[in-house]
């Protein structure tokens, strides 16, 4: 059957006929010319790459390297500025805290001194009032003690008059009150 198929294809135009020739890249008779054209093509490509494409790529890489280096330098300088700003801020904050602490301490000391002076004034005023009150009490007490005899005599006379129904001599009542006071 395959033989019939091969026989039937012989008459078809465009079908390969076995002429005994090999595929040109594998033909040993064309190796020399193929190698020559390979060397010429490789040389031209190498020349074009080394003179046109590679310098452009090298230039692009150089520009990128320079840009990266400048960006890193700028970032480093910005980092230094930031560190300096942070240090300055922390120092200012510490100074402000110290100042606030000093102001608070000063305010406490001033308030304490003011309170102590007011307390001293109040204590002095209270002492004056106490002395005045003691003087008044002594005066009232002395006056009351001076009137006690009189009150005792009049009270005794009134009681005796109620009990006895008649009056007693004031002289006798005064002597009895004096005797009771002495005991």
From TrEMBL:
Where is this protein found? Answer: Cell inner membrane; Cell membrane
* Any one cellular-component term (Gene Ontology): plasma membrane
* Principal location listed in the UniProt entry: membrane
Alphabetically, the GO molecular function entries are: proton-transporting ATP synthase activity, rotational mechanism; proton-transporting ATPase activity, rotational mechanism
Topological category with respect to the lipid bilayer: Single-pass membrane protein
Keywords of this protein's UniProt record, alphabetized?
Answer: ATP synthesis, Cell membrane, CF(0), Hydrogen ion transport, Ion transport, Membrane, Transmembrane, Transmembrane helix, Transport
Keyword check for Cell membrane: yes
Residue spans crossing the bilayer: 31-49
NCBIfam families, per database record: PRK09174.1
Quaternary state and partners of this protein? F-type ATPases have 2 components, F(1) - the catalytic core - and F(0) - the membrane proton channel. F(1) has five subunits: alpha(3), beta(3), gamma(1), delta(1), epsilon(1). F(0) has three main subunits: a(1), b(2) and c(10-14). The alpha and beta chains form an alternating ring which encloses part of the gamma chain. F(1) is attached to F(0) by a central stalk formed by the gamma and epsilon chains, while a peripheral stalk is formed by the delta and b chains.
**Which family, according to the similarity comment?**
Belongs to the ATPase B chain family.
What this chain does, per the record? F(1)F(0) ATP synthase produces ATP from ADP in the presence of a proton or sodium gradient. F-type ATPases consist of two structural domains, F(1) containing the extramembraneous catalytic core and F(0) containing the membrane proton channel, linked together by a central stalk and a peripheral stalk. During catalysis, ATP synthesis in the catalytic domain of F(1) is coupled via a rotary mechanism of the central stalk subunits to proton translocation.
Q: What is this protein called?
A: ATP synthase subunit b
Biological source species: Cohaesibacter gelatinilyticus
The record lists the lineage as:
Bacteria, Pseudomonadati, Pseudomonadota, Alphaproteobacteria, Hyphomicrobiales
